[in-house]
Write a structure and sequence with these properties.
Shape: globular
Order of helices and strands: EHHHEHHEHHEHHEEHHHEEEHEEEHEEEH
Distance between the termini: 18 Å
Radius of gyration: 21 Å
Bound molecules: beta-D-fucopyranose
Catalytic activity: Hydrolysis of terminal, non-reducing beta-D-glucosyl residues with release of beta-D-glucose
Pfam family, one: Glyco_hydro_1
Strand order of the largest sheet: 1-2-3-4-5-7-10-13
Mean pLDDT: 97
GO molecular function, one term: beta-glucosidase activity
Family: Belongs to the glycosyl hydrolase 1 family.
EC number: 3.2.1.21
Length: 467
């Protein structure tokens, strides 16, 4: 045990912090950036709480130097950020926008000068609106465009960026975006939503090929992975019905990604999960081969477990069956603390999830936890100090859960806290604060919270073990 109460992690374990472009950058009309589906969605009345948008966000586009200085003081080994596709290709295809590339050039150089490894995510949900207008992820051409975009970025930044994440949480992009309708583009669809999941995977495979081809051509090193938000799903009771409900949800949340990526197959219970909605019309021979290109690492985002029970279809609306209507319902998680997102805090579920994924997929590559953290009210303040003890407890518990998974044989090699700073939390707007740095949205001033200092001390203590 260290003085932070943290179980031991391997000496070369990597510590990082994460953010995403639309959530922090702002400057949506600057540098030749084109509109994304999140600009359109956030400006749609009623879509985001209080009508908030990412127009200004944390103004990171102008303040990235200050933010890198915060990362340097924090002492992280690596910083995970995302690249806004509409800054690189304002309409999602065609030649690169030099100003967009120049911004990420500056950011990467600033990080390297601070001794921090840049880890770049190519897609954290800000699809160019022009591609959405042509069908978005429902159509195959968007996956092809994504491969071209990946190549542009890799050719330019690949001399300094060696670790790439193709997609962030395709579950959310596909199903919260096109079935639940609480993320951009905000629709409620059936078969087309399932098609988006396939095209996102295909986009991942095509981008992987391009990242590797660019590296080979230039004689560079490139490690490629994908980030999934895997769910730990728990049946409400031991009944056959509730266990079958969890099987369907496993497919919707986890297996739809993991089976093709790591097993070269589609989940065998698709028909049971989706019925006639999963008609396969969006698949072509050879797709599985592209999707299943070997991964150098698997990124896993984790926040909380979910308890589920069997539930009938919503008969009130039989014609509105969407891809997430798989006859399951959430059951409240009693007896544990809930965060400001109303998410239950159950660190041991994180260990269970990691151990279970390793057991089910023996070919699982090394794992990085690419996001984990908690939204808290952050009301306990003196002067400009934020005493976010709940967040510290959350992080300590979940890092402990990672250490337990490592002990149980899962090859977890690093952890990125979500998030470096408070930011635009999608449909919840600015009210859900995940940062270890507080952002005052009036002045845009940044103030490290107690959790920042706690994480900094932990990283320092860990670094001392390396020498
Ligand atoms: C994840 C997202 C990230 C952030 C956290 C709280 O689903 O990848 O952008 O919103 O949740």
């Amino acid at each position: 045990m260290t003085s932070n109460g943290l179980p031991e992690l391997p000496a070369d374990f990597l510590f990082g912090a994460a953010t995403a472009s639309y959530q922090i950058e702002g400057a949506v009309h600057e540098g030749g950036r084109g509109p994304s589906i999140w600009d359109t969605y956030s400006h749609t009345p009623g879509a985001v709480d209080r009508g908030e948008t990412g127009d200004v966000a944390c103004d990171h586009y102008h303040r990235y130097r200050e933010d890198v200085a915060l990362l340097k003081e924090l002492g992280v080994d690596a910083y995970r950020f995302s690249i806004a596709w509409p800054r690189i290709q304002p309409t999602g295809s065609g030649p690169a926008n030099p100003e967009g590339l120049a911004f990420y050039d500056r950011l990467v150089d600033e990080l390297l000068n601070a001794g921090i490894e840049p880890v770049a995510t190519l897609y954290h949900w800000d699809l160019p609106q022009a591609l959405e207008d042509e069908g978005g992820w429902r159509v195959r051409t968007t996956a092809e465009r994504f491969g071209e975009y990946a190549r542009i970025v890799a050719d330019r930044l690949g001399d300094r960026v060696a670790r790439w994440i193709t997609l962030n949480e395709p579950f959310c992009a596909a199903f919260i975006g096109h079935a639940i309708g609480r993320h951009a583009p905000g629709t409620r669809e059936g078969t087309p939503a399932i098609a988006t999941s396939h095209h996102l995977l295909l986009a991942h495979g095509l981008a992987t090929e391009q990242l590797r081809a660019s590296a080979a051509e230039h004689g560079r090193r490139a490690e490629v992975g994908i980030t999934l938000n895997l769910d730990r799903l728990i049946p409400a009771t031991d009944s056959a019905e509730d266990r079958a409900a969890v099987d369907r949800a496993e497919t919707l949340h986890n297996r739809v990604w993991l089976d093709p990526l790591l097993g070269g197959t589609y989940p065998e219970n698709e028909a049971e999960t989706w019925g006639e909605l999963a008609d396969g019309s969006y698949r072509r021979d050879g797709d599985l081969e592209i999707i299943g290109r070997p991964l150098d690492f698997m990124g896993i985002n984790y926040y909380r477990p979910t308890k589920l029970k069997d539930a009938p279809y919503d008969e009130a609306d039989p014609d509105r069956r969407t891809a997430t209507d798989i006859r399951v319902a959430d059951v409240p998680f009693d007896g544990v603390r809930h965060t400001r997102m109303d998410w239950p805090v159950v660190p041991e579920s994180f260990t269970d999830l990691l151990v279970d994924v390793q057991r089910r997929y023996p070919d699982l590559p090394p794992v990085y936890i690419t996001e984990n953290g908690s939204a808290e009210a952050d009301q306990d303040r003196t002067g400009d100090r934020v005493h976010d003890s709940e967040r510290i407890d959350y992080l300590r518990g979940h890092l402990g859960a990672v250490a337990d998974a490592v002990k149980a044989g899962v090859d977890v090699q690093g952890y990125f806290v979500w998030s470096l700073m408070d930011n635009f939390e999608w449909a919840f707007g600015y009210d859900r604060r995940f940062g270890i740095v507080r952002v005052d949205y009036e002045t845009l001033e940044r103030t490290p919270k107690d959790s920042y200092h706690w994480y900094r001390d932990l990283i320092r203590e860990h670094a001392a073990k390396r020498v």
